[in-house]
Write a structure and sequence with these properties.
Blueprint lengths: L7 H46 L1
């Protein structure tokens, strides 16, 4: 640790860790939303052929 820069290296590492963690969390949330959005469409698609048969 230099007198001039202080703990800059440590803070930069922590800042990068925080940013990467936020990106991972956001990608996980978005993936969950995509799966949730597809689930109702899949059930509607499976009902459509039955309606066409009747």
């Amino acid at each position: 640790m230099s007198r001039r820069n202080g703990d800059r290296a440590r803070f930069q590492k922590e800042r990068k860790r925080k940013m990467l963690r936020r990106q991972r969390v956001q990608s996980l949330i978005n993936a969950g939303r995509a799966v949730a959005a597809k689930a109702p469409d899949a059930s509607d698609a499976s009902d459509a052929p039955e309606a066409a048969k009747a």
